[in-house]
Amino acid sequence: MYSIATITTAASATRLTTVERFKEETGITSNNNDGLLAKKIDEATSDIEAHLARTFCRETLTETFWGDSDWAERLVLARAPVVSITSITVDDVAVDASEVRLDAESGLLYRLDASGYPSFWTWCKSAVIVYVAGYLLPGESGRNLPPAVEAGALSLVSSYWQSRGRDPMVKSESVPGVMDVQYWVGSVGEAGELPPDVITKISPFRRVLA
């Protein structure tokens, strides 16, 4: 079975924190570097989402399932948490909401039979789900992004901000002699991972599908 999700209504916000929140956390009062701060937040957001292999912003998506197998015990939606389902069609026939059961937090969608008992998804051509998923992010009204995710973003932005202008390949420097510079070979840090304190904050939000 295969699936592809396309964005039909893009998010109005994508950053996991805001310039204002970062400045509040760090005590920065000048507005001279707001543009650069925004870029660092974009960078941190991208790196965290890549690490977790998920997107947090709220968007409307159309996801199509198809493939060699013509049945499935469940459909795993590409985005979560699911806020609402707009429509479900199987082989171009609409499926009523009473015929499905959704685990909104995990994004798992189950099919029910006419009596409400668990059944299987079956199709000849495809199953198409239109749904809204994701969080409202910092700066949006009603924001509900988990605080730990924003805390991880703030930590990562702080790390990037403090290291700006610094050669990322420098491992250590010493003066006697006069100067001895050692460079990292390959990625900086353990396997190019994010800083440990950031990983600790965001790891619980990796989607684990049993």
Summarize this structure as a short list of keywords or feature phrases.
single chain, 210 residues, alpha+beta, five-stranded antiparallel beta sheet, three-stranded antiparallel beta sheet
Strand content: 25-35%
Strand arrangement within the widest β-sheet reads 1-2-10-5-6
Mean pLDDT: 88
Tally of helical runs: 4
Largest sheet: 5 strands, antiparallel
The rounded distance between the terminal residues' Cα atoms is 17 Å
SSE series? EHHEEEEEEEEEHEEH
Shape: elongated
- Tell me the domain tally: 2
Structural category: alpha+beta
Number of strands: 12
- The stretches of 5 or more residues where confidence is low (pLDDT under 50) are 183-191
Percent range of helical residues: 10-25%
Rg, Å, rounded: 22 Å
What does this molecule look like?
- The chain has 210 residues and is α+β, with helices and mostly antiparallel strands.
- The chain has two domains: 2-56 and 137-205, no CATH class; 59-133, no CATH class.
- It contains four helices and twelve strands, in the order βααβββββββββαββα.
- The strands form four sheets. Strands 1-2-10-5-6 form a five-stranded antiparallel beta sheet, with no helix packed on it.
- It is elongated and about 75 Å long.
- Residues 183-191 have low confidence and may be disordered.
Write the layout of secondary structure elements.
Elements: E1 2-9, H1 19-26, H2 34-52, E2 59-66, E3 71-72, E4 75-76, E5 82-90, E6 93-94, E7 100-103, E8 108-111, E9 121-122, E10 127-133, H3 147-162, E11 170-174, E12 180-183, H4 196-202
Antiparallel strand pairs: 1-2, 2-10, 3-9, 4-8, 5-6, 5-10, 7-8, 11-12
